[in-house]
Amino acid sequence: MATSTATTAPKHTGFENAAEQLVPIELNIRGDFPPWLSGNLYRTGPGTYSIPSTADPSKVTEIQHWFDGIAMHHRFEIVPASEGQASRVLYRSHKGAPDLEQRIADVGDFPPKLFSFAQRQRDTDPCANIFRKIFTSFSSLGDAVAAMNSRERSNKLTNVSVTMTPDFPGITLPGGEKTGEGEKSGPRVIVSKTDANILQVLDATTLEPLDLLSYAHIDPRLSGQLSAAHACRDAETGDFYNFVAEMAMKTTWKVFKIRGDNGKAEVLATFSGKDAPPTYIHAMTMTDRFVIVCVWQAHIRGFGLALLSTHNIADSIEKTWNPKFPSVFYVVDRHNGGLVAKYKTDPFFAFHYVNAYDDPETGDVVIDLSVYPNTGVLDMLYLDKMRDTRDSKPWMGRARRFRLSDPAKKGSVPVLDAKIAFTLPQSVGVELPTLAPGKHHHAYQYAYGITRRPIGKGFSDGIIKLDMKAAVTAATASEPLEGKESEYAKIWRLAGHAPSEPIFAPRPGGASEDDGVLLSVALDSTPEKGAGQSALIVIDAKTMKEVARAEMPNIYPFGFHGVYT
């Protein structure tokens, strides 16, 4: 049940309610911010986990899974030092779904007609027979799909808080202007995205939710229920790439581009088939030549209709792992359109790509992912486990490199084998991976992310820098990669600190790929901080040493992703 009597038991800080900060406050700076660092760090993620009932505040609805925490958006404005004035950091935040919070308070439970990622609602049996339950309510599969598409959505009711895109192409601004038009300094709007065909438009300064859209608002061909929170964007043209998946007896996947210059959409390819059922997919990737969607094993039961029975993604996913059902990379020609090849590999699950690029020597497509052996990690992210302070195994994935032999368009789409080049050990597990901005979709050397010791406590305990070129060298030797971590990994780790996703801010005119700093909001739980204190940490990406921090007066909840502009 989602409703429980309020308790005084302490919660692990970082997974509890955060206060909204509508008016910017100045943070206390320790150390020296680089004089060139000037811009805005936007972040999004959960902000509310416990909602007292309007009728009886002693009754509290508890959010059960990290991915269902109710949205809060954040902005750190970094003002560089000037004559007579030291560097400053101004912080503000805004709730992303206040109407959902109010609805839960008024109902005294999570609203039964709204989808979530993993919230289990009262009287819902995740193991119930899907079709028996559906056909007691709907006369046909078509009616059931129509009901799924017509679920209630509104701007401040829908929870959209996973990734953020500045000045998303094709969005109409207040006043009728399109993003990308006219003179500007900094983004006009930020678009928050999730793993569904939903886009929330935010004011880039106040973070106030302005509108709720779908890709179909940009082009009606982009209909469907599922999409990737992590899309791709061409840094030079501003073109935006993603997919939508339309669930039915045969799910149709549509890979598309939205042009950065005029906001027009182009469908690059569609595909469907037994190896592409409806699937929970958090990310896709691309190279200079190709867009790649990997359909890994997180299949939604009953042609996707299990969502109508369970009301959430997690319980809709097939729990029985099938070691014989391969993961399949679908490769689409980015410039001319069309599906050019499919590559299969042993089944795995993933949230995030590290990067992908075209090998300039062989023409192969190189894909780096943080992988898991199955979907069990989804259960590890329920809040009762995330708040557990006892030693446990980490929830982080392992970096794995795949090579897809040079795709070539033929009369029929070939089905080839993806080759595994190497998998890094769990001792250098990585999640929420990021890169220097100019290296996305190109050959690269360094990746960054959060990490945690193989046996340890809490959300994370360090920020890792992976040297992927050195990892290739280490992997070509006959010895195992275990025990050689110092050759290809460097970690910022400070006792009592749990960092969030590191965002790379490049130094203007920087000469090397790692010439810049990493920005991460970390929770400092050292004894002198009492219940804890959050801070924006600035780390030299070359040396992986902290250079400065901006201390917050409150606890920043562990969030998902962000962007620096």
From TrEMBL:
Keyword Oxidoreductase: yes
Keyword DNA damage included in the entry's annotation: no
Names of the cofactor(s): Fe(2+)
Pfam families xrefs: RPE65 (PF03055)
Region Disordered, residue ranges: 168-187
Keywords: Iron, Metal-binding, Oxidoreductase
InterPro entries per record: Carotenoid_Oase (IPR004294)
Family, similarity comment: Belongs to the carotenoid oxygenase family.
The protein's name in its UniProt record: Carotenoid oxygenase
Organism whose genome encodes this protein: Rhodofomes roseus
Taxonomy of the source species: Eukaryota, Fungi, Dikarya, Basidiomycota, Agaricomycotina
